[in-house]
Amino acid sequence: MMKEFTQLLAATAALSLSLTPATAQDAAQDGDGTWITLGTAAGPVTSSTRSQPANLLRFGGRDYLVDVGDGAAGQSGKAGVQTKMIDGIFLSHLHFDHTAGLMGILGLRFQTNGSDPLTIYGPPGTQHLVDGILTAMEPGATANYGVAGAAPVDHRAGIRVVELRDGDSVETGGMTVTVRQNTHYSFPKGSELADRFESLSYRFDLPDRSIVYTGDTGPSDAVEQLASGADLLVVEMMDIPLTIERLLEANPGIPAAVSRAMQSHLADHHLSPTQVGDLAARADVGSVVVTHFSGWEKNQPAHMRYLEEIAETYDGAFLIADDMDAF
């Protein structure tokens, strides 16, 4: 049943801490399992109001980035976390809007003398990605600050990569992290590309709460199973017809075959508002935060429609997050 807009706002008020960046910094100081949406835009097209996909999980005195879109270093700085403070990075998949900030993180970590170990978790291909970034860093790391006679510094020191596949689980910093392969890639089973690449969703089980991050995905039984009973579901959402319309307007000469492929990708590999509600309801999650958002912003009438479509099947607390919201 449709809910009135004011009812929806009231239902979600308890979920959102409605924090400014400074307040988000204060709220996360004790590392109590705070999740901060550093960047909430659906890439790859840049936005004047939202940064590219990135999140910060602060728990047990440690700081973890979950996806690192362009601008992740600056956004984490707003939350009081400098690059050399980062203890771990989790990548959902290897699209550039989720990884473009990784070179900035690693380069600035080197320049600020970060020496603590840093583990980068991600799907197959992550080692190749990180090796390439570290190779690209060699000229800047070798020249360093341009001081003659300075001792060389190994910019690769302390960086470790752990590649994960569907169903894997790791323990780190007092939490259990489990991954499932989602449907953001749809390579034919048994193909070379299906063997080489996976797009992952993550579940972070902390002592007193569980957080599931879908990354980019279409409808997925595996993600529903991963999210079952989670306290917080951080989920992507896209107004797919609007996104297709904007794509065609921005590329009037796009070949028909390319247009069809893009429309298929958006429809099969992403979630609509209705599908977000269905996923949250079937998984019986405690609350929902929508990120990786592509659609009309809050000052547009269509924004209310997104909330109504989610609420048709999900009766818990939910909202569409902004950059630097903390939960």
Question: What does this entry look like structurally?
Answer:
With 327 residues, the protein is an alpha/beta fold. Helices cover 34% and strands 23% of the residues. The chain has 13 helices and 14 strands. It has helices at 5-13, 21-27, 72-78, 96-99, 102-111, 126-136, 138-143, 192-196, 221-227, 240-250, 256-269, 273-283, 302-311; strands spanning 32-39, 54-59, 62-68, 88-90, 118-122, 159-163, 169-172, 175-181, 200-205, 210-213, 232-238, 287-294, 317-320, 325-326. It has a 7-stranded mixed sheet with strand order 6-5-4-3-2-1-14. It has a 7-stranded mixed sheet with strand order 7-8-9-10-11-12-13. Strand 12, helix 13 and strand 13 form a beta-alpha-beta unit. Helix 10 (240-250) runs antiparallel to helix 11. The two termini are 27 Å apart.
Summarize the structure.
With 327 residues, this protein is of the alpha/beta class. Helices cover 34% and strands 23% of the residues. It contains 13 helices and 14 strands.
Number of helices: 13
Largest sheet: 7 strands, mixed
Structural class based on helices, strands and sheet pairing: alpha/beta
How big is the Rg? Answer: 20 Å
Q: How helix-rich are the residues, as a percent range?
A: 25-40%
Spell the H/E element sequence.
HHEEEHEHHEHHEEEHEEHEHHHEHEE
Span from first to last CA? 27 Å
Shape descriptor reads: globular
Q: Major sheet: order of its strands?
A: 6-5-4-3-2-1-14
- Strands, count: 14
What fraction of residues sit in β-strands? 15-25%
| Overall pLDDT level | 89
Low-confidence runs of at least 5 consecutive residues: 1-22
